[in-house]
Write a structure and sequence with these properties.
The protein is built from 13 helices and 21 strands. The chain is α/β, with parallel strands linked by helices. The chain is globular. Bound molecules: ligand LLP.
């Protein structure tokens, strides 16, 4: 489910008309479906019900306080990658005791903050970091709960910028070195409590095979670490992919094509069916760190068409959102469906590039795509923008950050105001 569909000729999020939101709050505007977020959380929880588990939502995907609060109310834990994310979780009422702290470059200040807040586990990415964590914990007279991230050297078959589980990636410790590292740590590092093992092979995985390969490869190591060091959890990371192509049901409007071979949908039920039997006899708590799966298809970015430019080679639809608002197409060649908020009256399509106002040729949302012939003044939705959308937005070209709205049923609430020009220069002199 994703909570977006045409009703009476106008695209809605749950019961709320998106054209009216665009008029009331302006564009560019992020809109999230609260019902979709909780539905995805519950479906994943249900799919894993055969094994003791905890879902630690990856805050980096969408860190708005209201989104975090919604997930905390569902019982989510949180996977964080910075002191800033921990601060957000605490402000949203999340429990640090259900937070894991990932990332290759934790600073001293971040380590101290997280130790004092009593997080569940530091997911450590190198021996150097583990020794430093031991030192800092010792200075504070504390014991740091830790898991090391194993790099299983498995090909996640995703975009190279979001693949993390191969030996050439900067993440984790080589599979072959982990057992010795745990041995050394338990002998030499008195301020570390080895609590678990972590892995994460990449993001936007659309096939189950790499997950199975990684779980099967790492299982003997996990058993060994449990036996020798009494670890209590195994985090199998995030990475569950979503459908970006054809992301409104084709039946709902029927005018865009499923592109073959691009997004073989990996259902959450399949994920559970394949992984639970492989995990349930380990006697460990299984942690999951999904980000995109929870929020990706729960959000859209609304943008208004400003101008049309017919050049010799191409037709450009120039919209008021730019790569600073949604960078995925520029950075990962990410595909987002582009859907007019007013349902097109005919099946007529035109070949266009949809581009933003930023002074870069990489500032496009699609190139050479057949779309309904929407006109200046009309709004479109960039679909599947709930994950790594606003979270990666910037002020490039001195553009204020867009507003965010959360829809629950027939209610729409601004959960972040549009940045104004004074806020844009705050802190500068
Ligand atoms: N755990 C760890 C250690 C991670 O590094 C990540 C994502 C996740 C969990 C959550 O992965 P997810 O379930 O969302 O796939 N900005 C990129 C994605 C970067 C992912 C970074 N790490 C994009 O827009 O595609």
């Amino acid at each position: 489910m994703h909570g977006f569909s045409y009703k009476s000729g106008s695209l809605h999020c749950e019961e709320v008309d998106l054209n009216s939101l665009a008029t009331t709050y302006g564009t560019p505007l992020y809109v999230y479906s609260g019902g979709t977020i909780t539905d995805h959380f519950r479906r994943l929880d249900e799919a894993l019900s055969g094994v003791p588990h905890e879902i630690a939502y990856a805050v980096k995907a969408n860190s708005n306080l209201s989104v975090l609060r919604l997930l905390a109310a569902q019982g989510a834990g949180f996977d964080i990658v910075s002191g800033g994310e921990l601060f957000r979780v605490i402000k949203a009422g999340g429990d640090p005791g259900h937070c894991t702290f990932a990332g290759v470059g934790k600073t001293r200040a971040e380590i101290i903050y997280a130790l004092n807040e009593g997080i569940y586990s530091f997911n450590v990415e190198s021996e150097d970091e583990l020794r430093y964590l031991n030192q800092v914990a010792g200075e504070l007279g504390l014991i740091a709960p830790a898991a090391v991230r194993v790099n299983p050297n498995v090909d996640a078959k995703t975009h190279k910028y979001i693949s993390t589980g191969k030996s050439e990636n900067k993440f984790g410790v080589d599979f072959e070195s982990i057992a010795d590292l745990y041995e050394r740590a338990s002998n030499d590092l008195p301020h570390i409590r080895l609590r678990g093992l972590q892995m994460h092979i990449g993001s936007q995985l659309t096939s189950i095979a790499p997950f199975i390969e990684a779980v099967e490869k790492v299982t003997p190591l996990v058993r060994l670490l449990k036996q020798r060091h009494g670890i209590e959890f195994w985090s199998i990371g995030g990475g569950i992919g979503i459908v970006y192509h054809n992301s409104l049901e084709s039946g709902a409007a029927g005018w865009w094509q499923q592109r073959e071979g691009t997004d073989a949908p990996l259902t959450i039920e399949r994920y559970g069916q394949e992984l639970v039997p492989r995990l349930k006899d380990l006697g460990l708590k299984i942690l999951l760190e999904p980000g995109r799966y929870i929020v990706g298809n729960a959000g859209v970015l609304l943008t208004r068409c400003l101008y049309e430019k017919k050049g010799l080679a191409k037709t450009f639809k120039i919209v008021d959102a730019g790569m600073n608002d949604l960078i995925r197409p520029a950075l990962y060649e990410g595909h987002h469906e582009i859907v007019p908020l007013t349902e097109p009256a005919s099946d007529e399509r035109v070949m266009v590039d949809v581009v933003g106002p930023i002074c870069e040729s990489g500032d496009f949302f699609c190139q050479d795509r057949e779309l309904p012939d929407f006109q200046p003044g009309e709004c479109v939705a960039l679909m599947s923008a709930g994950a790594y959308g606003f979270a990666m937005a910037s002020n490039y070209n001195s553009r204020p950050l867009p507003a965010e709205v959360l829809v629950e049923g027939a209610t729409a609430r601004v959960i972040r105001h549009r940045q104004d020009l004074d806020a844009l220069i705050e802190g500068e002199s």
